[in-house]
Amino acid sequence: MKSVLIAFMMIGFSHFAFSQKVISSSIGAGGATTVVEGKYYSQIIGQQSAVTGTSSSGGVVVRQGFKQPSLLARSIAASGIKLNVQEENPIIYTAFPNPFVDKLTIGFSVPSTKPTFVAIYDQLGSVIFQHTYEAPIKEIVFSDFSGIRVGKYVLHVISSGKPFATTIVKE
Questions:
Q1: 12-16, 123-127, 128-132: which is most confident
Q2: What is the value of pTM for the model shown?
Q3: Among 136, 133, 122, which residue's Cα sits nearest to residue 157?
Q4: Domain residues for 127?
Q5: CA atoms within 13 A of residue 124's CA, in its CB half-sphere
Q6: Rounded to an integer, what is the distance from CA 130 to the centroid of its chain?
Q7: Which of 158, 168, 169, 170 might form a disulfide with 99, Cβ 3.0–4.6 angstroms?
C-alpha cells in the first residue's frame, strides 16, 4: 500500500514538474515611428516574423510580422491630408461634453483654413464615423448618437501639422 501511495505521489509530482509550457514571444531590438512627406512609417528591427512578405488583395493588406499600423496611422491614411510636421497646427481642439449622451461638439480655437478629417473608432478599432470637412470650419456638432452603444471611443481630428487624438465616452 505504501509503494502504491509513493507511486501516485511520484506521478503527481512529475506531472507538476514537467508541465511547464513553452510559449512563443516576439522580441524587437529597436524601432521607430515617423511621418515623412505626409506618409506614416513604422518599423521594428530584430522582430521575429509569423509570415513572410506583404500582400494586398481587394483592399486588404497583410503585413509581415506582428507590428501593425496604429489607429492614428489609419486615420492619416484615410484622410488623404498631407501632414506637415514642421508646421505646428495652431488650432486647439476640444471635444465636449465628455462624457456625452447623444450630442458631441468638437470645438476649434480658431477656424480651420485647411480641410479637416474626423474619425471615430470603437475599442476594437472599427470605424464608427469618418468624414472630411472643407475649410473654413470652427466647430463640428454630432447630434445623433442613438445607434452607438455606451462605451469608450477614440476621436481623431486631422488638419495639418500635428493630429489631435482623444478618448470620448458615451453614457
A1: 128-132
A2: 0.57
A3: 133
A4: 93-170
A5: 3
A6: 15
A7: 169
